[in-house]
Amino acid sequence: LKTQYQNAGNISARINLHAMYSVNRQGWFKWIYEQGNIASHTEVLELGCGDGRLWVDNIDSVMSQNIKPHITVSDISEGMVNDARRNITEVYEKCVKNPENMVNSNNIFEYDVADCQNMSYNDASYDCVIANHVLFYCEDIDKACQEIVRVLKPGGVFVCATYGSRHMQEISQLVKEFDKRIVLAADNLYDKFGLEGGGELLDGYFERISMRRYDDYLLVDKADPLVEYILSCHGNQNQYLLDRYSDFKTFIQKKLRRPFVITKDAGMFLCMKDLNMV
């Protein structure tokens, strides 16, 4: 994972496939922002920021808030944080119509290298914590939940996104058809924390837990973005594909003579910290 996430290159390849071919035109990050009611919060912590796409896609909403929020954008990878800072700053500067009235983006966004299992933030310092496809990477999910509860204010909201067992299943089947030795993920992350069992793990730490599913699928008709997605995965695919790249790309192109349908099985848990919990 340290190699996988030294910077945002791999995660951006995966996000781009969804951005290009998702049938739901609202887009995942706008849906997260809306369904999590993130605009209603002024002290926000994002864990596992990746390339910063949550804020890139919602910068207009952030800037339209009457009371400008303070957003801490964090990741365990310094490379990810640097990529997120660059992407958010770039879109922020484009968003501001009158440079003379520009509020320094550092007054809104703060960037930090942080491990969600051991955070240095003060108790009860955020009214919203966001973890988008993060908890299943944690060595100790219980420890991460304890830390998230600690930094949330009483009544604060935890927006926690993950996916289910059917997510992107056609891609795994596709690469196995090319070479049955290929495994795109050594572990099924949804078994560790997914839509099917995640609520039970959260139940001991939060109240008013609800789950919302994102209605979407991919309809892919170009080989390059799909190949880039596959090469970016966590598994052993590069061991078997890099020396046979041309053959694999030709195989994918033949499969895409008709648009290729890929299941998406993703959603979020919305949780609240007990109002009476200090």
Structural class: alpha/beta
Helix coverage percent of residues? 25-40%
- In what range is the share of β-strand residues? 15-25%
Low-confidence stretches: none
Written as H for each helix and E for each strand, in order along the chain, the element string is HHEHHEHEEHEHHHEEHHHEE
Give the termini separation.
Answer: 34 Å
> On the 0-100 scale, what is the average pLDDT?
91
Question: What composes the largest sheet?
Answer: 7 strands, mixed
What topology, given as strand order, has the largest sheet?
Answer: 3-2-1-4-5-9-6
Q: Can you characterise this structure?
A:
With 278 residues, the chain is an alpha/beta fold. The protein is 38% helix and 21% strand. It is built from 12 helices and 9 strands. The protein has helices at residues 9-21, 28-35, 53-57, 59-64, 78-95, 141-151, 169-178, 189-192, 198-203, 223-231, 237-241, 245-255; strands at residues 43-47, 70-75, 109-113, 126-132, 152-163, 207-214, 217-220, 260-263, 266-272. The strands form 2 sheets. A 7-stranded mixed beta sheet has the order 3-2-1-4-5-9-6. Strand 2, helix 5 and strand 3 (109-113) form a beta-alpha-beta unit. The model has no long low-confidence stretch (mean pLDDT 91).
